[in-house]
Amino acid sequence: MQGRTSYFCQSTSRGRLQWAGVLSEQEERRFNQYYHPGEGGNNRGGDQYGGDTFFNEGDSCVVSYEEEPEEGVSNARIPSDATEGQEMPSHKGLLVVANRLPVSVIRIDEDSWQLEINVGGLVSAIAGLRDFQVKWIGWAGVIVSDEAGQQSLTKALAVKKCIPVFLNEEIVNQYYNGYCNNILWPLLHYFGHDRHSAGHGYQSLFDVYKKANQMFADVVYKNYKDGDMVWCHDYHLMLLPQCLKEYNSKMKIGWFLHTPFPSSEIQKILPSRSELLRSVLAADMVGFHTFDYARHFVTACIRILGLEGTPEAVENQGKLTRISAFPSGIDSDRFIQVLKLPRVQDYMKELRDRFAGRKVVLGVDRLDKIKGIPQKILAFEKFLEENPEWREKVVLLQIAVPTRTDVPEFTMEKEWKISDMGIFDQSLGFNALCALYAVTDVALVTSLRDGMNLVSYEFVACQDSKKGVLILSEFAGAAQSLGAGAILVNPWNIAEVASSIAYALNMPREEREKRHQLNFTHVTSHSAHKWAEMFVSELNETEVEAQRWRTQVRPSLPCNVAIENYLKSDHRLLILGFNATLTQSAEPPDRRGGQIEDMELNLHPGLCEPLRKITNDPKTSVVVLSGSKRNVLDDNFGGYNMWLAAENGMFLRHTKGKWMTIMPELLNMEWVDRLKLVFEYFTERTPRSSFELRETSLLWNYKYADIDFGRLQAGILLEHLRTGRISNTSVDVFQGARSIEVRPVGVTKGAAIDRVLQEVVHNEGMNSPVTYVLCAGHLLEKDEDLYSFFEPECPDELHAVKVAVPSIRTAETLKGSSILNLKGENYFSCSVGRKRSTARYLLGSSEDVVMLLNGLAGSGFDE
Prior knowledge:
The protein is of the alpha/beta class. The radius of gyration is 34 Å and the shape is elongated. 39% of the residues lie in helices and 20% in strands. Helix 2 (121-127) crosses helix 20, helix 7 crosses helix 9 (273-281) and helix 21 packs parallel to helix 29.
């Protein structure tokens, strides 16, 4: 049996629970029109459109939408009919994209449809955005396979400012019932996977999920106009932001999750975890109900994707995505005003008479395993056992709405519960629900996990007269907003919930009033309208933040210009880093085997041929300047005609000669043995960290360690170094993204390059100055003095600049000239992978370096 069921339980003299349900066929029909609209609908409890009130997570799902609107009660609706045939004022466009359109659709004949707007939290919230021309995009809840039907429905929905996405039955079953409900929904609520995720069926479900998201993207792009904002909703559309950015990178996109976002340890279970996270990060702003959910998302991006993030933003490939919490609310005025209506006053009187002499404890939930209804009943039963004086003096009224009936697990649970209960027919509409809220003494919300749960808000809004007590699960998002006035409980702790019921029923009026006032102030000041306004306003402002961020990020290297100028130059110098520049791009730090591969640095296979061609060109000198040891460079570049500068330029050789030491005189290395013990100590106590002893430096790397523990240990190590072992030693500390290196003072790549150039000039017998320089590397901040070494005095002006390099062999340098005669237009400094840098340009990764060097090799010297 589907539809809305209300269960009534009261205490008996034996302290047991006697159940009675109130359900009528008329009410069931009304409810199904709302929650299961259309013949092909498989909607889960309304999804997004009323928050927990009527859509978001569907907690308060007891509303009759066929009742005539009462006088004085405003019903939220999508502006449509009132403006039909009239020209709308010029406002900014907002495309609201959700799995379901906020419209109930019934097909009358081939080209005729009956449409009814669903009143709910998201609908009323969006309706309050007066400065935007809003259009809704989503599935209409019905399967329409014929072209004539699709055309007629599209035309009918256009009047309601709605645009349909047509899904067939197979996509609905696999995308919505399969991937969304069986995989994402349980995982987001900490219930893990079902059998599909571990079996061969997972990939097929995910493929259909991707296909459905692409279908939504196609419809959005077709209706998008320059300047529009796109607001995507919920876990059904996690791939949509990336799909849309591939259409138009300038499209301003926000994404909001109406469920919890779990800990990164839960998120790791999902096979498609990385693809989903990266797609969501394509949005300009990502919103959650609570700070905890936002924090979990950022942590997942750091731990799973290996990205850098703060509580406010995550950086991904040079793009900054803003992360923020936006606690939703309700239209509290609607609940407050409806209590003044004569009919509602009559309901309230009937309820007071019916429960005269007894306290009312109320629960309003969907019949879903996340709502904790069994735990609630056990707690109430335990309360009666421990407090026999309350028998016959208290009544528990549980409103439970069967939803997700297409998922067998939930259907069996519903049938098991109904089989143990007596059922009586009685309808309960919106007015009656508000009356019930108003006469309730204690509201009992025991969700095991909830995105927000706005039932608690509804109860508070209707309690301005009685000042009832709210018992609220600490695992509901609303606990962060209403925790000051509510009694927070762990729903799994039956004894705690039972004692909280007793405490609430015996609470003095003065305390009840103080608690209520705290919650009432929050509920009335944080409305659904303000929630939507705040999200859209901050989404609009992300462009300013993004522009500020982009000014700190280097522009991409104009490869065509770099190659063209390379061809025109008579003598070129290429200075290249090694790690993360000429090696293969690093995978996320949780990838198996990645640490072993990182410890064994190897030249990118795509560079073997272009490097051979470039290094054999008599017009081109190539120097690999790296922090790596000599043997590492020998193993990778011994077969090429180039210069190798190891350990940040302290050792140099041409591949046809022997290593020479070119480090500064009087270089003090006495500190090495002392610090070696310190680095070994932290390596032993930080799992998956590594320590490398070089001839001129010490390096501790925690890239593969637990990110939080690694950062903690790095902070302790830095403090120890600065205040202890090296406080009076002539060394510099270099801090990388996930590494700490100690070198002698003055040992940087920029300081070494002049000595390197002297040797290159001397040994190659140059008879003309260098007129083209390409300098590319993934450098630490202190090593970026390499870029400034070649920088002309006035980089914005394209003029010849002679850089006179001090020479030990003055007579052997170029007679009457400098080593460099460099124009600004012929100098290309490139940071590889580091978005914020002093370099002129950016190359995204070593893959971009491969493309660049292949371009230089293909257009240069022919052997």
